[in-house]
Fold this protein.
Amino acid sequence: MTSIGGSAFYYCTDLTEVNFKATNCKTMGSSNRSVFYGCSLTTINIGNDVQNIPDYAFQGCTGLTSVTIPNSVTSIGGYVFSGCSGLTNVTIGNSVTSIGGSAFRECTGLTEVNFNATSCAIMGSFDYLVFKGCTSLTTINIGNDVQNIPDYAFYGCNRLASVTIGNSVASIGGYAFYGCRTMTSVIIPNSVTSIGYKAFEGCSGLTSVTIGNSVTNIGGSAFSGCSGLTSITIPNSVTSIGDSAFYGCSGLTYVTIGNSVTTIGAKAFQNCRGLASLTIPNFVTGIGSSAFENCSGLTEVNFNATHCTMMGSRYYPAFKGCDSLATLNIGNDVQNIPDYAFQGCTGLTSITIGNSVISIGKEVFENCDRIQFIYSMNSVPPTCASTNTFASDIYKYAYLYVPTKSVQQYKTAYEWRNFTNIMGQDDEGESPYQMEVVLKNGTTTTYDLDDIKEVNIINR
């Protein structure tokens, strides 16, 4: 049998069970002429040789409570179980490669899905979501032989509380769990290598995410809007964090960025207002525009990227709006500070520039007009790319501490010579607060002010 006409079993009210063995049926009714409309079906047995379940096949069978899709089935059509409001449990077999749009739409009683399709490539679309309107769906179990979770797979399952992802999954598709706002935790296993675009966007109830140690790419907006997330550890396997990946994760207070990350996308952590401190690891070569914009709780940044060549842009600097950022530490292996790197960080008061920095880009500290202390550890003054590397307001009032033997070099070096207060410190960067004292015998001694407990001035 390859075709069953619309309303073929219309209002067969005594019909409670169907054994469906049509191995390759192409058509079964239509959107407004369901084959089994008005029947009392409670059981459907799909034969082990069936390969295809056509569009609309069991649409509107409201008495149906459980369905198992056997391993022979490769294709589940659109709207197949749409409106089966009594359906509570579905098991999808391991050979399914495509599930049509709205296949389980408005299955309002559905609470659990066991998804075992090892290589499913298609699950509905943006406009025709497979589980749209499944308002009771709380549990999804992804089997251990499943290799990928398709795009849009569980989009909008906003009552979802529990997801188990099997240990063979290699990729999580775009929008896969978009808007699943009641989900509280997810463990991404070590088999996963990529997390797709907007995969978990809007999962505002998420408080815990574990990212496995094989993930290399976190897609754009992957966790955007996960406002309940408080901490995230990005493993050392990750090389790329996509644009807006953690945008608007306002509850995020702690982030560890793995040592293999080379690119941090535009707006990647924008509006993460709870973030207090941040370390940029060694191998980062590029940080996108507004990457940390409006991280208003950020007070300290440790910048260790040794060969970073790009950090935001003139009008969209990476740390725009980080008004609480007070302390910046540039690591000792860093060689270059890119153009515009910390432009507009108006709360910045203390900067330590490591001893390997040889160049500072254009407008790096422009508009950072509250800087009080700069500790430049290189004995050779770093080259400044422009006259507005620093905000002009600080030249008169900020204290620039440099290696003692290099004071004169800094006083004549381009841009550095603008500082009124250039003072020496030892090569280890120990206390620059020192005082020279002429003793009674005419000799001169230098004291660290940190070590002085009491001063008695005697007039003789």
